[in-house]
Every structure is written in C-alpha cells, then in structure tokens.
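Limitations
The structure tokens in this dataset are predictions for the assembled complex, not deposited experimental models. Users should treat interface geometry with appropriate caution, especially where small molecules or nucleic acid strands are included. An illustrative entry is reproduced here so readers can see what is and is not provided.
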Amino acid sequence: MTTHNTAPTQFVEANGVRYAYRRFGAKTGTPVVFLQHFRGGLDNWDPIVTDGLAVNRPVILFNNAGVASSGGEPADTVSGMSRHVIAFISALGLNQVDLLGFSLGGFVAQQVALDRPGLIRRVVLAGTGPEGGESMDSFTPLVAEHATQEVPTEDNFLYLFFGPSESSQAAGRAFWKRRHERTDQDVPSSMPAMGAQASAIAAWGMVPVSNRYARLKEIQQPVLVVNGGNDIMVPSINAFILQQHIPNATLILYPDSGHGALFQFAERFVSHVTMFLDS
Amino acid sequence: MTTHNTAPTQFVEANGVRYAYRRFGAKTGTPVVFLQHFRGGLDNWDPIVTDGLAVNRPVILFNNAGVASSGGEPADTVSGMSRHVIAFISALGLNQVDLLGFSLGGFVAQQVALDRPGLIRRVVLAGTGPEGGESMDSFTPLVAEHATQEVPTEDNFLYLFFGPSESSQAAGRAFWKRRHERTDQDVPSSMPAMGAQASAIAAWGMVPVSNRYARLKEIQQPVLVVNGGNDIMVPSINAFILQQHIPNATLILYPDSGHGALFQFAERFVSHVTMFLDS
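Predicted assembly:
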C-alpha cells in the first residue's frame, strides 16, 4: 500500500487542465480531498495527518489549476478555484467526497460545499475563516513579508504557522522535518500563481456591505472547524464565527498554537477528524 | 461494581459540614470530581457521562455545602464554594484530582484551580465562563423565570439546557429520562440554597473595573472548555474567551445545542473528555 511518501503524483485532465494529485490509503470509504493553503503543493501536508486519515478512507491530495505541479492558469477567485475542484472530482468519477480545506483551501472548501452540495458529504475547515471575516482583508506587514518570499524557508513557516512558545516552535521544526521526508518533492508554485491566489484571498477577506455571513447558513453539510487559539494569518475568532453561523458545525481550538495547529497537534487532529468523519 | 444508578450516597465530614457524595468506577487512576450547576444535586448528571468516564477512572459526584443532601450552610460566593471543594477533597484523603465543572460548577472549578493548584491535575469546564465574562451579569427574564421555579420541570430544563430545534429538544427529553432512571434520587436543593447560589453567580458575573480576565492567565492546569454553540444561560462566546486567556486550554463547541451540550452529545463528550484526560 502506498503512503504519503510513496504515492506517485498522478494527473487527470478536465476542460483542458492537467490536475496533479496523489491518492493513497484505504480502497473503500468516502475519499477525503485535501485543499491546500496559499502557495502550497502536494508536499505541504503533514504525513502524520494524511497517513493517519488514510487508515480508514482514501486520501486525495490535490493541486488547484496552475498551482505547483498542476497545469492550467491559476484562478484568481475562490469561485474559480471551486470550479476547478468540482471539475477535478468529477474527472476522477467520484460521486461524493469529504473535503479537508486548510486556510485558502478552507475558503475553497466552503465555496464547493455551497456550489455543489450533493458532491460533498462532510467538511473539515482548518486555519480558515468565512468570506468577509474578521480582520481578514489584509495581512500585517510582517505576515505579508514572511508569506511572500520567493523561496519560503523554515523560519517563514515557523513564524506564520506556529506560536512563539518553545513548544510550538519545536513542533514546527518537527513538522518541517516530516514534511520533507518524501524524496521526490512537488515543485514550488510559481510567482504568478502566488499573485492569483493573493487576489483571491484579498477579495474573499473584504467585508461585504450587507448580509455578512449570510451564505454560511446555506452550508448543509456537517462541518468541523479547527484552528489554533492564536492564528496570526486568519485570526482565530473567525473559527468561532464559522461555528456560530454554519448550521451544523463543531469547533475545536487547540492551545498554544496558531495557523498550523493541525500539524502541531497532528495525532490529536487525526483523532478528532476521524471521530467527526465517522460519526 | 457500582454505577451512577447504584452507587450509594455517602457522607464525609470536614469543619463541621457533612458533605454528600457518590463514588464509583475504576478503583485506580486520578479521580474526577464533578461540580454541579445552579441548584443541581447528585442526580442532575447524565449517567452516560458519569458511567462513561468511570470506565477508566474513579468518578466522584459532589454536593457543595447546603446543596441538596449535603449539610451545612450554602456558600454565597464562588470562593466560599471553592473552600468547601478543597475541604471535601482533603477529607477524602485525595492528593490530586481532576475537576469537571458544569456552569456554576465551572466557576468553582476555575477558583479551585487557582486557590489550590497542586491539588488539581486537569480541568474540564462545561457550559461556563470566566469571572466578569460577557453578558454574565444577569439572566434574561425568561431564563430567570425558568431557572427559579420552586419545582423545576422537564420543560424548564428543555428551555434552559437545549436548543429550540426538534433534534435538540428530543435529546433533552432523552437526557431527562436517563437522569431519572435512578430510583432513590437525591433531595432537591432548598430555596435558601438557591438564593445563596444566585448571589454567587451574580457577583461572579460582574465585569471588573480593570484587569478583566487577568486571573485566567494564572490557571496552570491543562483545561478543556466545552459548550453548545448557542448557550442562553452562559453565552457561548465565554467559552471562546476562556480558551483565549487560559494558557493551556482547548475549546470544543458542539452544533445545534446550548448549555446542556454535554448531555445532548453525551457519548461524544465522553470521547472528547477521555481523550483530553488521558493525553
């Protein structure tokens, strides 16, 4: 059986776009499709999380159009990214999947759940927030600087995804090691892909003139919202807001952690997500 | 082995107060002491929760002084209640316990953790909030009316502890049945006990002039905060505030539920608490 570190990168084509993905884990069960954060590719996940969830279900890692090893033009709206996800899932011939969206991937997961409810069984939203959320219209200058380096370093991730405490930083370094164990890593995303995604994030973060959070009420699926208690990229209050407005949402916030809480508490996250997906 | 429904009510005396309690479950492990809500006695817990947690540890249900079957004068401050908890735990000869405090019991659990940190290993806070929390200085008239009936009815609990949805109300009725399965129920709390507790709750809820939430930073123990997403007795935002200010706190909010979420999702709550206490 293949794993996070051994599953080959595969490609599937739809509407002229060649989407990169990896599939591994159990042969049966509702597959869980992983939707990645800003600039991230197939190797920006934690093997503990992906292999942990793959024990009981197929896991599918996915690069949106124009991101890392995927072909096509990068979408510059969350709606556009959602359309690519739907095209990709359909191209694989899957009738229903679970989504696990992290950060920007969480924006996209919400949009897919709204755009094609019948396709999505359950949704896990990590380190993310609602459209027009609280303080989501811009990054602080320091966050922006760390997030936009041409070649992101371990230090950038330690700052953006983990808390300042020694234990959080140590967890970050351990994650960084795990995430590099695979020898044939995905290619980095291009600078144009970064630009398109930055546009999508900025537009998603803008507070609407009226009906703020109204669309969250339309999300039909059971949702698990997870974050660290002190996320400097998508402020943690947004996780609470998601729970308050999505009709069937459970919230879990971890201590002493930030955006990358799902990697800092990888085993615990796997247990919580497994309980949620199997309940 | 005795259970929630068969464990005899026992008494232990300290400083002239005769405290009522029940102990059951595993013989070894750190005992978890249950601290009850406004007016509640030994039978206001859910057997699924108490027996579920008793599988792996001793469970101790406790009536504070002057409450239900306990003797003594009811304390009219949270500090006073905390002193009774400490006296009780010491009288049992226990060196260290976990606390599970629900609502008013959660106020007391926080206070005990601050007053005698060495005695407390871990804390579960359900349906509760910090001293001087958000909208905790008074109840709405309807909540006050339902909460102060001389003989509280099923309808009072369905209104106060559960949400308006059919599924939440059905869970409430199922809880009400389970909670009455034991044939020799604890006596109700007196009206003077209610008055003393109401004073303690009102004082705890007053927003301080300065240093709001400052004492939460001093709580050393790992804490699990749990509530329903729509608590009309202790507004759910207070669970978020607890998570944000207690240094090592995890937050879980359940969907479509209120104050009694720990009973509505009794099995899930047992799983989450077990994971927390054993981690």
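Some entries come with short summary sentences. For this one: Chain B has a mean pLDDT of 98.
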